[in-house]
Amino acid sequence: MTNTDNHIVRAFGDELSQLAAEVARMGGLAEAQVSDAVDCVARRDTTLAHQVIERDEKLDALQRDIEKRAIRLIALRQPKANDLRRAVAAMKLAHSLERTGDLARNIAKRSLVLADAAPMSPLTRSIERMGRLVTSRMKEVLDAYTGSDLEAALAVWRRDEEVDEHYNSLFRELLTYMMGDPRTISPCAHLLFVGKNLERIGDHATNVAEIIHYEMTGEDMIDARPKADALAPAPAGV
Amino acid sequence: MTLQPPPAVPFRRTWSAAWTGAVAVAVLLAMALADRADGRAVAAAVALVALVAAWQTVRAGQVRAMRLLPRGESGPERPPDPTASFAAAFELLPDPALVVTAAEPEDMASRRVEAANRAARELLRIPRQGALLVAAVRDPEVLEAVEESLFGAMARTAVWESGGVQERVWRVWTTPLASAPERRVLVVLHEETDVRRAERTRADFLANASHELRTPLASLSGFVETLRGHARDDPAVRQRFLAIMAGQAERMARLVDDLLSLSRAELNEHVPPVGAVDLRLAVADVVDALAPLASRRSVQLETELPAEPVLISGERDQVVQVVQNLVDNGLNYSAPGGRVCIELSPGLDAEAAGAAAHPGAARLSLLTPDREPGRRYAAVRVRDFGPGIEREHLPRLAERFYRVAGQKSGERPGTGLGLAIVRHIVNRHRGGLSVDSTPGDGSTFIAYFPQPDAVSG
Ligand SMILES: Nc1ncnc2c1ncn2[C@@H]1O[C@H](COP(=O)(O)OP(=O)(O)O)[C@@H](O)[C@H]1O
Ligand SMILES: [Mg+2]
Prior knowledge:
The complex is a heterodimer.
Chain A: H1 3-43, H2 46-77, H3 81-114, H4 121-146, H5 150-158, H6 161-180, H7 185-217
Chain B: H1 8-33, H2 39-68, H3 82-92, E1 97-102, E2 112-116, H4 118-124, H5 133-136, H6 140-151, E3 156-161, E4 169-178, E5 183-191, H7 193-228, H8 235-267, E6 276-278, H9 279-296, E7 300-304, E8 311-313, H10 316-332, E9 339-348, H11 350-354, E10 362-367, E11 377-384, H12 418-428, E12 432-438, E13 442-450
Parallel strand pairs in B: 7-9
Antiparallel strand pairs in B: 1-2, 1-5, 3-4, 4-5, 6-8, 9-11, 10-12, 11-13, 12-13
């Protein structure tokens, strides 16, 4: 191999690892946005809420940047197989993380409205619990990405239904509240959306696990999600 | 072979004097700083900077010494290699420390971990030298501090929550080391989980204790009032009231006990227990302790234990408390004539340990340990055939004071703290907790604990 070839190969590898590094950085930011957004609700912290709303632009910018780099890399280098998948995966991941950020911003916005209403502490505890679960899923799946750990990504993917279970429970709890005291309907509706957003953030973590799977194996995860209904009666003989 | 005094020895002695001095200064500084509340960590950082600086000096000195000392001529009197001892010191520091290098400001991928000690490698799961910094830490605040030390030549600090179920908190120091030929910063982490947890636990304890004790206290004073007034001369009423009062006093005592257990379990949740416990013995203790309650409630207590010891990493009293709280619930929420089974299964992976015992039941993990590939767990399953728990209540079971409304409980109402205590203790043990339940058919609570490496299966 000549020196120039060598140089090109190395530079190409550098560009790919830059892309991966930017995705990881974006992931860190998205994680922080989600956990701060949950804190806004739990602690009724309006200053933090404004920060979360403002910082969302950074995620948007990072996503545009990653997309641009990935497209340039694909167009100029015409990578094959593995490398192409890494570039495509970076783009998909950036997209998923950007959506996650939007959901976090929406939670922060709702926390501003909630801060004006009377505190509902058992409910915010449930939101906090769900928030912790969702942030831990994000952390695990992003660790799996930076560590190229397929097994860890699959472990996150398999635990997909847990968030739904928390959401359903929160939904029942909110319903009981609203029926008991109609004055709480408006804040409860906001909390319901906060819960829904957390559930969707959890779905993005699952999505990230799927992208990691695609990046590392080249295959989509076609089998149905464990979500189907882990709680429904299992078929006989299982 | 004739021994020539190697010319490098004086050099080495000089250098060794220099770094001994540096370390001495650092240690003194560290001791002076250690008095302040946050001083310990600052001190650690100062000592480390001195250490790394001295290490680099020594490395330079050694290069010079090597030039003067041809290979193979080293004498037996040579003092130990200073670079090696610095490397060893850095390696063995209890606080995670790493050296990060960077080439270009705009390129995240050029931030690399040049060196990381054992504590850092374990905490941050750094796979190898030269790994990407973002693969170890993604937190924006920490990355920003590193940036400012790299390109702004400023020392910075940040707070970092490392995530994971133990919810540990760290203070992060970043200090510039060099700007040429490559930029280099020292990053030191010091755990602050203790302090933060202590604050929170104390606040929670006070708030909970005053709130929860208020009601029984008010009712006690109500009864005292009545006993002094109308009921003074009515022995029948007096007897009844005294019985109620005794019950209230007992409940208050139980509340205080449980709150203390909860605080204790919370306080050291991030400190893994030392020692090993045979789960079979823990179960046997609980069965002995709760046999009277079981017979009073006419509930049969059954066990299914393996013949071999089931060793787990843990603290005996706490493990006993976990099993006891679960069995206690099983007995309390069973109808008379029911039964409670305790079953042990060792050698499972985390997923199998927490898996539903009964197909068709609603299942939920109340605590999932951080992933540890290859780790084996031993599970305690406590099954009852009582009323079961509706699915929508499952996520809240381990919340402090949460009790499912409208449920009959045995002879004494609970405090709603039992499962919260269980969750904290199991988390301290790096284990997991899950529940599956079918309304009408009963519930199974599963606590699982990591087994020591030595025993596999
Ligand atoms: N084995 C069980 N069967 C039915 N319900 C249970 C069982 N264990 C716990 N629960 C429900 O969970 C709640 C919390 O349990 P716990 O924390 O032990 O508090 P306590 O037993 O003091 O009320 C209980 O109040 C009860 O409603
Ligand atoms: Mg109990």
